[in-house]
Design a protein that fits this description.
Elements lengths: L8 E5 L5 H14 L6 H14 L3 E2 L3 E2 L2 E4 L6 E15 L2 E12 L4 H13 L3 H9 L3 H12 L11 E4 L12 E2 L2 E2 L1 E7 L6 H16 L2 E6 L10 H6 L2 E6 L14 E4 L1 H6 L1 H12 L24 H34 L7 H7 L9 H18 L2 H14 L4 H13 L3 H20 L5 H4 L2 H42 L3 H14 L4 H14 L8 H27 L6 H15 L7 H6 L1 H22 L2 E2 L12 E2 L1 H32 L7
Parallel strand pairs: 1-5, 3-6, 4-6, 10-11, 10-12, 12-13
Antiparallel strand pairs: 2-3, 5-6, 7-11, 8-9, 14-15
Helix pairs in contact: 1-2, 3-6, 6-9, 10-12, 10-13, 11-12, 13-14, 13-15, 14-15, 14-17, 15-17, 17-19, 18-19, 18-20, 18-23, 19-20, 20-21, 20-23, 20-24, 23-24
């Protein structure tokens, strides 16, 4: 099938007075032609990209684009607008609009075809032909020839060289030491479809005019081919025209660098090359450190402080989740096979028995103990992994060791999840600062493997031990004492609401852990005559299951268009995580949108906590979710309370996201990515 058809072409039509209206109209055309299944979901993805960085470009062009699960085939829609619409090109309205729609699992060859369109938009003859086309069929022919669809489509060369032409005018030439400048550039945008390649072509065109020997590495969705190491070594300077992290930045270590947004590579390529040549002559110019190089390091702010922190935290969470998922499910299997009291004897059984020396409970008890022990060890890495990879997101590999140590110290100090975040940030910042020091050449080799881990661990972990751990531990103790006092007073439903709120407040953090520890500690005093601790345990477990289940319901069933493709994938995993009582399954959603996800989760958790108490549901098992159904009575009350709370939370988060979406669309603000 063709990437573009006449039915996807609009010539001189009024599609609305603003870009939201244009995007909605084109999204609906994709659906009408069977290229997408949900116009609203596709619009939401395109609008999210538009908010990240306006897609309008000089010359009356706009190239909005999106990757979405709603797209069934990589496609192009074209609109020649009359009147033109402002797409954010510094007040210059756009009359030529290409909307690119790609599946979130698009094959590389499809992305390469779409990217080739972006490169053609730098060609004045191509634009002139589109502006003079009389029919949709004529537009389709122009576009298909441009992207090579009538022949075998080839991916655009990721590493393009622009050798210095001898005919460059003396006044335009950019020289270093009396010869043409040698510059390496990296271009990358958030989606890696359009702006990545347009910036590469803009820089290449400027290099030809200025006599610069330029090599461009395009880091797009269709992959990338690294610039050869000898080319980098010979370069005078580096240009990073990026909106996202540069891949393998250590390749460019020590080179003078100019960092700008990807749109600067499209709009001001000659200026970037001139700045790079000037940096090559300046001994005090900024140089690539060889650790984490991000878009936030640009001389032009391209990432807000809040967005930077969010990305760092999400990196830590993404590496932590496998420990949560694997460990939590192993613990649940341990309860299922070994019984609800396996937690009291698992370690002893594993150490004192074997397959040929089974315990009194037989093979199932032994396997249950093995699963429970392995799961407990895995879960023990949660805070350390979170802290370690938060530090990694800041300082690259040198930050991992001090981050892991700081996270382990946070556990030792009972600072929990919050302590891990603080420790990881401290370790990462210290490692990043040490990595930027100008040390003697003989010491550079020792920095990442000895000096940075040593000093980073001492500073970050020392601060946790000396100043930060005890206040957090004291706060958790005070919260536990308060819960005990409420339970003793007979206000059992109030306790249920409070426990539900606490379990959903920080999703595995210190507040969550206080509620959980309160419930587990109470099990030691439980008996057939004193069943209140069993009810408290069931309340805590049920409420803790609500956030991941609610996010799964909202992102995969109720309102997929309100969530990013990544969140939709996380939502699929959250079904199992929630059923296993792994509250951390909702962390990716909360980290991306805490002001909506956390309140919605707390509402549902409070409802579930109150219902569990009212129905008198008890759990003899401290973990496992639905997999320890045999230890929960009545199981129907447990499931009912969870279902009600899940629906309440899911509806609340959908309502909040839709309200925020309408509000944003009414007053759009373009923020550089």
């Amino acid at each position: 099938m063709s990437t573009i058809t006449p039915q996807l072409v609009s010539l001189d039509e009024d599609l609305g007075t603003d870009k939201q209206a244009v995007l909605r109209a084109l999204s609906q055309r994709f659906v009408a032609q069977g290229r997408a299944t949900d116009a609203e979901q596709l619009f939401a993805a395109a609008w999210a990209r538009e908010e990240q960085d306006a897609t309008g470009l000089p010359g009356g062009i706009a190239i909005p684009h999106a990757k979405s699960a709603a797209v069934s085939q990589a496609s192009l829609a074209f609109a020649r607008l009359n009147p033109p619409v402002d797409f954010g090109a510094e007040g210059e309205p756009s009359d030529i609009v290409f909307m690119i729609a790609a599946p979130d699992t698009a094959a590389e060859e499809h992305l390469a075809v779409l990217s080739s369109l972006a490169r053609n938009l730098m060609d004045e003859d191509f634009l002139a032909a589109l502006r003079s086309a009389a029919t949709p069929d004529e537009v389709v022919g122009i576009v298909r020839r441009a992207i090579g669809e009538e022949e075998a489509a080839e991916a655009p060369a990721p590493a393009a060289a622009a050798p210095a032409p001898a005919a460059a005018a003396a006044g335009d030439a950019i020289l270093v030491d009396g010869r043409p400048a040698r510059i390496v550039a990296v271009t990358a945008c958030a989606t890696g479809i359009a702006h990545t390649y347009m910036a590469a072509d803009g820089l290449a065109a400027a290099a030809r005019k200025a006599g610069v020997e330029l090599h461009v590495e395009t880091q797009g969705s269709s992959g990338y081919t690294p610039v050869p190491a000898d080319t980098i070594a010979a370069a005078d300077a580096v240009v990073f025209a990026v909106d996202v992290d540069v891949r393998e930045p250590q390749r460019f270590a020590g080179k003078p660098v100019i960092r700008r947004t990807v749109k600067a590579g499209i709009e001001k390529p000659a200026e970037l090359l001139a700045l790079a040549a000037a940096a090559a002559k300046d001994p005090s110019a900024e140089r690539v450190s060889g650790t984490a190089e991000t878009a936030a390091a640009s001389n032009v702010p391209v990432e807000s402080f809040g967005a930077r922190i969010k990305r760092i935290l999400l990196t830590g969470v993404s590496y932590m989740i496998p420990f949560v998922a694997g460990g939590g499910l192993l613990i649940a299997l341990g309860f299922l096979l070994g019984g609800f009291d396996i937690n009291e004897s698992a370690n002893a059984i594993v150490l004192e028995n074997a397959l040929w020396n089974l315990p009194e409970g037989g093979l199932l008890q032994y396997l249950g103990a093995v699963f429970f022990t392995i799961g407990g060890v895995s879960m023990g890495f949660l805070v350390a992994a979170l802290a370690g990879y938060i530090a990694f997101a800041i300082a690259d590999r040198p930050g991992i060791a001090p981050g892991f140590v700081a996270g382990s110290v946070a556990v030792l100090m009972s600072a929990g999840f919050l302590g891990g975040i603080v420790g990881g940030l401290l370790a990462g910042l210290v490692a990043w600062w040490l990595g930027r020091l100008d040390v003697p050449r003989w010491l550079r080799g020792l920095m990442p493997v000895v000096i940075i881990p040593l000093v980073g661990s001492i500073v970050a972990s020392g601060l946790m031990i000396l100043f930060l751990g005890w206040p957090i531990a004291a706060l958790m103790t005070a919260m536990t004492d308060g819960l005990n006092n409420l339970a003793d007073s007979g206000l059992i439903v109030v306790v249920g609401v409070l426990l539900g709120l606490m379990m959903c407040f920080d999703l595995g953090g210190p507040v969550n852990k206080v509620a959980y520890a309160f419930a587990v500690a109470g099990l030691g005093a439980a008996s057939d005559q004193n069943t209140v601790p069993y009810v408290i345990m069931a309340t805590v477990m049920a409420a803790g299951m609500v956030p991941p289940l609610a996010m799964a319901l909202a992102s995969t069933v109720l309102a997929r268009g309100a969530f990013t493709p990544v969140e939709q994938e996380n939502g699929k995993a959250a079904w199992l995580l929630g059923a296993s009582f792994i509250s951390e399954g909702a962390i990716p959603f909360a980290a991306a949108d805490p002001l909506r996800v956390i309140p919605a989760s707390m509402i549902g958790g409070a409802v579930t906590g109150a219902l569990t108490m009212l129905l008198g549901v008890g759990s003899r098992a401290p973990h496992g979710g639905v997999f320890v159904f045999f230890a929960i009575d009545p199981i129907w009350g447990f499931l009912l309370a969870i279902a009600v709370g899940t629906v309440v939370s899911a509806l609340a988060v959908v309502a909040l996201k839709k309200y925020a979406h309408r509000r944003t669309a009414a007053a759009p603000v373009a923020v550089a990515a």
